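Researcher: We plan to redesign the surface later, but first we want a full-length starting point. Tokens attached.
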């Protein structure tokens, strides 16, 4: 009788793994990081309107309440995948898909709202105000950040991919030292070191 090969246990998906990431180093990379574990079973971190609202707040994008819609969520998903295609192309020295470049160029077009000064009703001085972004303006802010990143040789050279097998999150290495191997020492770094210790213990005489 044939015996089915033993399968490795599926990694447990914890609340920490589902948490939004705001530590990738740029607005666009923080969007790319909303899909985790791309090399295995992906973890969707931006799957609901509440998560979209939390993400916008976390990255400092101020949108009107009526702009937080299912349509914007779906459009940000397409921007996310196109942005990942571009940064992965930079990291692995390949050409991104033409449709990714075309989509990002189209989404970059809306101009951000200009800030303006407003005279208070009473008292001295002025205050700076900016109206909330529309959904397309928010997308343009993300794409313009990505274009600025890949257009800057120093920042482009600081792009890294987490070496943890199940992570592969793309991030900017602060200072571009090249010594940082994981997206986060607290997350993937400690897990990788613990796995190495377990491996050594298992093979020790």
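Model: Full-length starting sequence:
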């Amino acid at each position: 009788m044939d015996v089915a090969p033993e399968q490795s246990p599926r990694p447990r998906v914890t609340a920490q793994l589902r948490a939004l990431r705001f530590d990738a180093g740029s607005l666009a990379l923080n969007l790319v990081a909303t899909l985790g574990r791309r090399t295995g079973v992906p973890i969707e971190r931006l799957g609901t309107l509440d998560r979209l609202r939390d993400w916008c707040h976390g990255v400092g994008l101020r949108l009107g309440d009526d702009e937080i819609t299912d349509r914007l969520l779906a459009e940000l998903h397409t921007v996310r995948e196109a942005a990942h295609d571009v940064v992965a192309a930079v990291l692995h020295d390949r050409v991104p898909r033409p449709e990714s470049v075309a989509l990002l160029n189209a989404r970059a077009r809306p101009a951000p709202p200009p800030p303006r000064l407003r005279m208070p009703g009473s008292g001295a001085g002025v205050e700076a105000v900016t109206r909330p972004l529309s959904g397309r303006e928010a997308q343009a802010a993300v794409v313009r950040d990505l274009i600025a990143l890949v257009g800057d040789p120093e920042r482009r050279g600081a792009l890294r991919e987490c070496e943890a097998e199940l992570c592969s999150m793309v991030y900017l290495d602060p200072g571009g030292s090249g010594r940082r191997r994981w997206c986060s020492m607290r997350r993937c770094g400690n897990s990788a070191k613990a796995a190495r210790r377990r491996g050594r213990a298992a093979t020790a005489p």
